[in-house]
Amino acid sequence: MKAIALSLCSILFLAGCEKDSAESEPIRPVLSVIVQPQVQASLGRFAGTIQARYESTLGFRVAGRIARRWVDVGREVKPGDTLASLDPADQRNQLRAAEGDLAKVQAQWINAQAEARRQQQLFDSGVGAQAQLDIAQTNLKTTGASLEQARAAVVQARDQLGYSELKTDHAAVVTNWQAEAGQTVSAGQPVVTLARPDIKEAVIDLPTYLAEQLSTDLKFVVASQLDATINTSATLRVLEPQADAATRTRRARLTLASTPEAFYLGTAISVTLTSAVSPRSELPATALLESEGQPQVWVVDPQQNTVATREVKVLERTPYSVVLSAGVQAGERVVTAGVNSLKPGQKVKVDEEDPR
């Protein structure tokens, strides 16, 4: 009986020790993050500029020497404003010559009229010959045609004089000059480039590999490089079919959903490309635990402050992060540090990771 009593005491003592050991097991502090599923995948960020959708390059319709440039780059112009003017000496001389020719032909026309009337009167009175009347009438018609030609030449000379001034027919902003005052230009040679500021768009250069896989669900977010809060969405309007020979990029022009006032022509922008994907969650690489070849994570029970393992499906893996396609839900808390020293059901003290 004494031996049995001693055995019972030993068993009770050991049970008490195990209970004290279990009760005294420390609460382990861990780092963790909240699962936030992603439905958009970023394809990159690219620099670009705000440009006008419509640009036009103007030149003089006549040749000559540029006498003056009336506006500078960046100047806003209205319809009818003069941009530049040629030395009009040649055009004025041509106009004077045309006006002189017109005066001469008008005098010939008056004489031809008088001669035709005189021959008609002689013929009607019976003393004039038919041949003389025919010659006078023919000369009148010929002189009339010459008069119309001379009048047209004067109109053309006046137009040529007007063409010595380069004017705009629409509101625009001067973006570039290709000729300087004193330079001699030919008819049609590019002189100035104008941009219409009413319709703006974003212009970026995309790598060829990315340009070839653009899809219809692709989304563009255009933001000012100076202030990212100034932004708007955009859609692809046109993609140049050929890559630039030097940079091997293809230029994309984007239609803006709205045009913030800060988006002036030439504004530097950054364009973020995103595409719709199946829901996935990105976690730090330290959150992943390998057990018998199966990837797992520790999920925290918010009520009990305990942890339990959860099998997950890894979609992508980098040295710094893992992307999970299944296994965790939105809003769950996952341990990101100390995963190899935890036990199922162990109590933990949660510290959130620095979001930076």
TrEMBL record:
Q: Which Pfam families match?
A: HH_MFP_RND, RND-MFP_C
List the molecular function annotations (GO) for this entry.
Answer: efflux transmembrane transporter activity
Family (UniProt):
Belongs to the membrane fusion protein (MFP) (TC 8.A.1) family.
Segments forming domain Multidrug resistance protein MdtA-like C-terminal permuted SH3: 290-339
One GO term describing the cellular component: efflux pump complex
Gene3D superfamilies given in the database record: 2.40.30.170, 2.40.420.20, 2.40.50.100, Helix hairpin bin
The UniProt record lists the Multidrug resistance protein MdtA-like alpha-helical hairpin domain at 95-164
* Protein's name in the database: RND family efflux transporter MFP subunit
Upper lineage is:
Bacteria, Pseudomonadati, Pseudomonadota, Gammaproteobacteria, Pseudomonadales
Taxonomic superkingdom: Bacteria
